[in-house]
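Q: I'm teaching a short session on how sequence maps to structure, and I want students to see two examples side by side rather than one. Could you give me a first protein with its sequence written out and its structure tokens following it? Keep the formatting plain so it prints cleanly on a handout.
A: Of course. Example one:
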Amino acid sequence: MHVLSEHNVTWSEQPWGRQSEVAPGATWHEISPQKSFGPDKLAGGQELIIVTLAGGAQVRVAERVLRPLAGQVLQRDAGEELEVVNDTTHVLRLLRVPLLANA
């Protein structure tokens, strides 16, 4: 077993913050204060968006806009957009995990 945390993964810098691929297709996104990410449209399938560090940022999934708390899990379907506007002074960290279709 390998325990993943923000301290033992490899981060790559992005204009909106940083990201780390933790498994094939599963990516942590850390959106820096006063930065924005997206809109990013999901091409196909479904995706879980897990809030691992809540910074109070505004998150839009499809038509729903919220300020999620740590531990909240959102699901989006193909064609739905994800957009984050971090208008706070804290980082927001999301783990994005694609869902596999049933065989």
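Q: Perfect. Now a second example for contrast.
A: Example two:
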Amino acid sequence: MEALFTSHSSSRSPGSNVLTHTSFQTGMFPSRSRGFNSLSSTADHETEKGVGDQDAPKPNSETPDSPTFESASQFLPSVDHHPKKRILFVDDEQSVLLVLQAFMQRLSDEWDASCVEGGRPALALMSKQPFDVVITDMRMPDMNGTELLNEVMKRYPKTVRIVLSGHADEQTVQESVGVAHQWIAKPFDLKILRTILGRIANFHNQLENPSLKELIGRIRHLPSSPRLYFEIIEALQSTTSSTQTIADIIARDPALTANILHLVNSAFFGIARSISDTHEAIQLLGVSRIRSLALVHHVFSSFDRHSFEQLSVEEVWQHSLQTAAWARQLVLWQGGGRMMEEKAFTGGLLHDIGQLILAANLPAAYREIRALARSRRIPIYDAEKQVLKATHADVGAYLLSIWGLPIPLVETVGLHHEPGRAPERTFGALTAVHVASAWSYEQTPSAREIPVSPLDLDYLKETGVADRLDLWRQRLANQS
């Protein structure tokens, strides 16, 4: 566990709530009354994991169905070649901020850290200088964490928003849904914070690629935030909700209702009898899959299908659904656990949404991309790089990031063609989607003209599953 810190001396600039740079010595810091028991316990109480299950939850560190964190390796690749990232800690207790600022001195080669006491001073500071990450407590006087993150989301949508709180009760979790990319519950090991910051730096550098920023600037229509999806999450976090509650939410969108009933009766789910009731469909599919279907339905319904000259929406939809089903199956065979199965399912559904965005917004460029891919017999992904200097995976990840969806899901979408760029070499949702997407695409009509992106065999060897590929292929073929 990381050594904890206490202040040797501290100073505060007159009339300011911003902590200035201080000097510290190592030692033990006293417990905080509001769940800040020594900043330590989570990493010392690992729960059971499935085979390679980096998605498994840890007690007190994650609240179900809230923005979550997939644990990563403690040793992440260096990002020295990138400019230092700026991080802002917001809490109403100076003692907490002093500990966090002392810890951040160890990461000073990569991060510039600032600390403020309260939401209004945080917004004032952000108006003067940009920050890549904001980490805030939830319960603060004057302006609470939810109010602060709502303002940050509106004013600075590219800033990563994280809740660091000892209050994981129903009300505070519901309040943070949709405004926080991630929730970190106190008490926690400082190694967890280091891991998360390393992951964010890697993730942020990818999204800050100048070519991607230029491409996003050319896109006029991005789907709006998925209101129904977040309503379902909020309902799931209520102690009084039921599957009927979820059914009532879904019933407000007739197109989504029809889509779910169509899917539950399709071959993908293998249900022997016809289902015509939404409540029964939810019970059979499970709420996690319903939630994922609501999210992807929102994306697909955001575009006029007549606007796609070069892309079959139906083909993308069928490919995405099959990728989701197969990715979930691979996780099941690998023993990854229910949480990883559902993350793989969601990642599979969403992995190609960037293609819809590009084809709808940049039809001339996408026409050129597909012509290049056909003439040179290269994957769409490579043709996108040549024409746009960025890819559909980048665009999809960007969209999910500004919606405030969990970073592991954003990574799965953004890296599904290049998993070797991920900071981990452990089997997880990304691995499953990478394999399932490639194999599913082979069965699409487009594959006759445009080749599939190849599997990253080095990555698969490092994750320990390369020798299982033939067996997986055979099992999937037997299920067809």
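Q: What should students look for in example two?
A: Point them to this: Strands lie at 5-7, 24-26, 85-90, 111-116, 133-136, 160-165, 182-185. Also worth mentioning: The chain is about 50% helix and 5% strand.
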